[in-house]
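Purpose: get a first structural picture of the assembly so the mutagenesis plan has something to point at.
Setup: three entries, given in the order below. No constraints added.
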Amino acid sequence: MARYPGLSVPGLLRLSDYVGTASFAVTGSLLAAGVGADLLGCAVIGTTTAVGGGTVRDLLLGNGRRAFWMEEVEYLYISLAAAVAAFLLWPAAERGLGLGLNDAWLEATDALGVGAFCVIGAMNGLRAGVPPVAAVVCGVVTATFGGAIRDVLCERPVRILHSYASMYATAAAGGATIYVLVRLAGLPTPARILAGVFTGMALRAASEHWDLRLPVYDSDTARQTAAAKGDHRGFP
Amino acid sequence: MARYPGLSVPGLLRLSDYVGTASFAVTGSLLAAGVGADLLGCAVIGTTTAVGGGTVRDLLLGNGRRAFWMEEVEYLYISLAAAVAAFLLWPAAERGLGLGLNDAWLEATDALGVGAFCVIGAMNGLRAGVPPVAAVVCGVVTATFGGAIRDVLCERPVRILHSYASMYATAAAGGATIYVLVRLAGLPTPARILAGVFTGMALRAASEHWDLRLPVYDSDTARQTAAAKGDHRGFP
Amino acid sequence: MARYPGLSVPGLLRLSDYVGTASFAVTGSLLAAGVGADLLGCAVIGTTTAVGGGTVRDLLLGNGRRAFWMEEVEYLYISLAAAVAAFLLWPAAERGLGLGLNDAWLEATDALGVGAFCVIGAMNGLRAGVPPVAAVVCGVVTATFGGAIRDVLCERPVRILHSYASMYATAAAGGATIYVLVRLAGLPTPARILAGVFTGMALRAASEHWDLRLPVYDSDTARQTAAAKGDHRGFP
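Result (structure tokens, whole complex):
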């Protein structure tokens, strides 16, 4: 990947990474605002949503690594700026410009983020020398764990576990797998990147459009099963 | 510990580790299914339950380590296979074979997992050169944090904190402590391993059988205390 | 920072670190007791509250680091002892000595902890060679993530995100920023430490005293926004 955005495919991947980072920070911040977090809380949650997945990937890969945003500080600036701006400007933008959380531009930049994150995660894994299957896990972790941490901190059901809000983790797994396969097939860098990013974005868009869902258990049986295993609280 | 299962004591420890990993993945996956996670969500939760404790231990020990399943990929395969198989086959196995989540074979493999994990964790700590007390913490973390992450992701009360579902963390602490003490006493490897694993399993079985519990606070006072400290939500 | 407490400013910083660690462990343990955790659960939560922030900082800084309490084991002893003592002795102390969770000595030691933790975190960051803004993040993480993990494990709203329980994270951010600025300005070690610790403590005390709060969203709009984004559960 190029160090900075540019017009080559690696440069566009970096640009997509910036755009996805900002988009994740915006939605994370607004979601935190929605559960009553204050300005700093929204900055923390927005930033965690944006850089959390890549951070967990760096911790898992270890080997002397450091959380990437400690050195590539621009990710910290992008995340903080996007999260704070969202908190401060969103109410006015909703009223004045008619923006909404289901707008196509927000869905599109989020999908671009998923595509870029899963490819960059898998790329980091392969470069660190882990086996292909572990590199795919790196891609999934990069694209999804920021959102998972956000959901835990905001006390929401963790989105990546559930199908009701589109096949998020599945899209990341698909994108990362295609990237790794195309790379193992020996195709050049631009082809790998484009194939992975496109697959991730396409799976996400397709699942939204045709309302595709992975199978789940019948919930009544499920509740009894869980209760039998020692959860005396019942489920919502 | 032996690299692969075998008939020596270290080889049996590795085998117990595989069996415990699969058992944790099965129960994690079914618990996630019980709160409405889809197929991929159950694979993620099952795998996290199985390898999460050892992963946190590796992160805490640091010093250039990498999450163990990034290199010993067989743990990833065992976890994913067990979690996916449980999701897909459990309903049929419940009906056709009469299997249940409280079956003795599932309790036994879970207990074997706790015994193996706490010993392996403490062993990793001592080999990394940390003081004995920190090695015991490594054992407890290895045996319990996978389940703790599972409970957080599934929005359940964290089992290791509570006594209502048996003395889980206490069994791990006991097994890890005995392993470290026997090792400090200079006994040979097989004796250390057997003493630690047996202690962990025996404590777990004893707490189930005699319904042993650690002390807790009276909950009414407790709720008021918590409310007074700033929790305006009350407790369930 | 001095390796052990003493009468120099660095030695007093170490002492404040010990006092803050014990104070965090006491309140963490009592909070866990308040949600029904047993003795070992309270020891785990108390210790996590006390050393969790510094641990996350060490993981993020990486580069071969290890969780600090694995080598400076005295932090493990202080945390465990304070958490266990709080669990066992608090009910009697409440009745016999009239102690309470809102006592000034507990607020003061907690504030001392925040001040010391944010300075020590930022100091660790700068010594590790990260840019100033990342060092400030290290300070905030050190002072606040232990409490955040505690809240997640206890299924409470995460305090640092909300303003209803005083400007906790803001105080840490202020203290860490002042420490970094004074250090960049070239002032000697004692001046940096005192400026940072004092700022953190003063911001925390001021927010308590004048009931200062950061802005939050109107919660009705917020709930609808969140629901529109896919949370089908509604918010408490």
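The interface with chain A takes residues 59-64, 130-131, 133-134, 137, 148, 152, 155, 157-158, 160-163, 167, 169-170, 173, 213-217, 219, 221-223, 225-226, 228-233, 235-236 of chain C (CB under 8 Å).
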